[in-house]
Write a structure and sequence with these properties.
Elements (H helix, E strand, L loop, with lengths): L2 E2 L4 E2 L17 H41 L4 H42 L24 E4 L16 E6 L5 E6 L7 E7 L2 E2 L3 E2 L34 E7 L3 E2 L8 E6 L3 E3 L8 E9 L6 E3 L4 E4 L9 E9 L2 E8 L2
Parallel strand pairs: 9-11, 10-12, 11-13, 12-14, 15-17
Antiparallel strand pairs: 1-2, 3-4, 4-5, 5-6, 6-7, 6-8, 13-16, 16-17
Helix pairs in contact: 1-2
């Protein structure tokens, strides 16, 4: 334990310190464990102090008795030495208790820094009913009725976390306490609060506003309704030989230049989808040969410089088809 009753020395605590490394997060229960760890140490220190005090009292009583019955000078000197030793022991124990009290105050201060008043009071009884723009300290508030400048749908029982930097800069998170745990966020810059925006949920119905860019392949596991969707056309370069096997990766609209004779084959990527390929004949355009399509329909292809063609490939579990439309 931190107090050694035999030597009267103070050592560090172990339950709190030894279980954590620098940079680890701690919570209230960890701090409670640290404070509880001092209890046996303080009790042991008090027992030692009490024992030392009793020894000192006994030594003093012995010295008085020796003087009364006319004891020798040697006996009196022995009693005085006992008294002096007991006093030193008492002083050492008192210093140890003082050190424990100082450490307790330090730990309590750390706990207060980590948990400012009201910050973690999730069950606080006094709900906040004011203007969220007026919150000027880091904290967590449980909302009551009448709150202003909150996100759409915020109501009684929801929580607002404010991370306050200074008078010009802050961030607020709103957590909906309903069946759908909606999370909203806004930031203040140069003293002005921005609009609340909602985090995108992984479940439930939600309307997502604004332009969104998906930089990688995206899979939709439910029905998808698109209004005004647009796709960029991917440049697959100039083809003059070999086999061109288009892919939907990166985009389903693609364009090429016919710079020589080459073969067009069905896409190999799995799934069912449509590809639209626009081809422009270059000065050295060659014959385009198709391979492995179930059916090829539409207009004939030419090699005339500047002629354009729109080729639509439909890939399904049954196979791939090609339809050609001349654009001149």
């Amino acid at each position: 334990m931190p107090i050694d009753p035999d030597s009267g020395t103070f050592a560090r605590i172990w339950q709190f310190v030894d279980h954590f490394a620098q940079g680890d997060d701690i919570n209230r229960s960890d701090l409670d464990a640290a404070l509880d760890d001092f209890v046996p140490a303080i009790n042991a220190a008090l027992l030692v102090v009490a024992s030392a005090a009793a020894s000192a009292a006994a030594a003093a009583a012995s010295a008085t008795a020796a003087s009364t019955i006319g004891g020798t000078a040697g006996a009196a000197a022995g009693a005085a030495a006992a008294e002096a030793a007991a006093a030193v022991h008492i002083a050492a124990m008192a210093a140890a208790v003082s050190a424990v009290e100082d450490i307790l105050e330090t730990v309590e201060g750390i706990a207060e820094d980590l948990n400012p008043e009201g910050f973690l009071s999730l069950s606080q009884t006094t709900a906040y009913t004011g203007d969220l723009n007026s919150l000027a300290a880091t904290g967590l508030q449980k909302l009551g009725s009448g709150v202003t400048n909150g996100p759409t749908g915020a109501g009684v029982g929801d929580f607002i976390l404010t991370v306050y930097h200074d008078a010009n800069t802050a961030t607020q998170l709103a957590l909906n306490n309903g069946a759908t745990a909606l999370l909203s966020i806004r930031a203040r810059s140069s003293g002005t609060w921005g609009a609340w925006v909602d985090a995108v949920l992984t479940a439930g119905d939600q309307t997502v506003a604004g332009s969104k860019t998906f930089s990688a392949a995206t899979t939709f596991s439910a029905d998808l309704s698109l209004k005004g969707a647009a796709s960029a056309s991917v440049d697959d370069g100039t083809l003059s030989s070999g086999t061109y096997t288009p892919s939907p990766v990166g985009g389903n609209f693609r364009h090429i230049i016919n710079g020589g004779a080459f073969t067009l084959a069905p896409p190999a990527a799995s799934g069912a989808y449509t590809l639209v390929i626009e081809m422009v004949n270059g000065a050295s355009a060659g014959a385009l040969t198709t391979s492995a399509f179930l059916r090829v329909t539409g207009d004939p292809l030419t090699t005339t410089n500047g002629h354009k063609f729109q080729m639509v490939i439909v890939k399904s579990p049954a196979g791939s088809t090609l339809n050609v439309t001349a654009l001149q």
